[in-house]
Amino acid sequence: MNKLFIAFFLFLLISHSAFSQSQIITGGWVFDTESKSFKKNQGIYMINGLFGTGNENITNWQVRNLKDDDYILPGFIDLHAHYRISHEGKAFDDTVAMPKIFLANGITSTFPAGEIEPDKMWALQEAIDRGQRPGPRILHSGPYFGTAAPDWDQEITEDQIRQRVDEWAKRGAYGFKAKGITADQLRVLIDQAHKHDLTVTGHLNSGYRNSVNPQEAIEMGIDRVEHFLGGRLLADSIDAYQSLKQLDPADPRLDEIIQLYIDHGVYFDATLATYGAIGGVDSPVFFDFAFEELYYTPLADRVIKANEPSAFNELCAQIYPVKQKVLKRYYDAGGLITVGTDRPFLLDNYLGAGIGGFFIHRELAAMVEIGIPAADVLYFVTQQNAEALGIADKAGSISPGKWADFLVIKGNPLEDITRTRSVHTVVRGGIIYDSQSLKNAAKGKLGPVE
């Protein structure tokens, strides 16, 4: 009985670290997404889970004071947030450790970019919304559209695709993810999603073996593209990964596909750092600042330590410097960039060190390392990600009427982007969480069990 009581007490401590209907946060510095700079915090008002103006007729404000070295950022939005774990050919979405780790790192909203078990993820979101579990907002993508979905029928009809979109749109999906899809199927998906004012993102290819090149998808009206810019420089005679390895980032023809993105207002989620992690690249970006093995289950820890380097690890090590130069060129041209971690926990095909929630800080640092200013990178992971998903009226900045989501770190990240790793407080919907308590609750729980 004592153990049950202690467990229940700890749950309450983590799930409702601090909540009041009306709160004021004073002190510290706050990131202004319009000027992309920090300003002295004159008071952040939170009322019933939303940011307020301070002009509300409220007399019983609860006041919390921050220190002068505290820096406040709008809640991070991860547009490629995998909850997926796989082992021995079986895949499942983790609802135990991943939600806590995402939230502990300041990620207050996640777009799963394809769910293996969408019903399970919906149940998780409902439990989080009821305050029964700590975690970020799950901005559902529903199931994959394409062969990445366990239930995908390659002979699926146009009507069935439209019905699949309608079903998940009705349930409240925020957008859809295509992977392993044909051009005809993608065209239908985009058309039907847009009828619901929902966006579509895609993990596409080079055009090899009936796959879709991003250039073709952009002409169809896709909203976001992941991993590969595409275009004529990706030879359709080989897979995109192999083609990218051979790409010359200085090739003038790259301007064509970059301009196509700009002309159509399409966002590019490069998932840059994940390729460096998979490739085992030696860079301070990939320093294990969190001692991540502490979060693995004993079985996951043994499997990871027994892993041998694969051909894919070597391939990603070759791809990474190409992606770095391509992304910088895309940025310099004015292309729209989003931020996503893309870190499924695949024990059968190990993707190198880096758990999704912690990895957001590596993705930000990887962008700064190639010459993108920290101010822009922080804008991408907040306001620009919100705009890309179509939720800028709800998230992305600390503004009246939006979700009361933010994180507090130590030190100015514009001077050193790695300071985002120092998250100590996270607020989601007006509920204040202690980051370390969330992390402690996730230790030893990530991965399959015996």
Automatic annotation (TrEMBL):
Q: What domain of life does the native source organism fall in?
A: Bacteria
**Presence of keyword Kinase:** no
The entry's keywords: Signal
From the UniProt annotation, give the residues forming the signal peptide.
1-20
Please name the Gene3D superfamilies in this protein's record. Metal-dependent hydrolases, Urease, subunit C, domain 1
Name a Pfam family for this protein.
Amidohydro_1
Question: Entry's InterPro entries?
Answer: Amidohydro-rel, Metal-dep_hydrolase_composite, Metal_Hydrolase, Metallo-dep_Hydrolase
Question: Start and end of every Amidohydrolase-related domain?
Answer: 71-430
Coiled coil (UniProt feature): none
**Protein's UniProt keywords contain Signal:** yes
Q: Which GO terms describe its molecular function?
A: hydrolase activity, acting on carbon-nitrogen (but not peptide) bonds
This protein's name: Imidazolonepropionase
**Biological source species:** Algoriphagus hitonicola
> Which classification does the entry list for the species?
Bacteria, Pseudomonadati, Bacteroidota, Cytophagia, Cytophagales
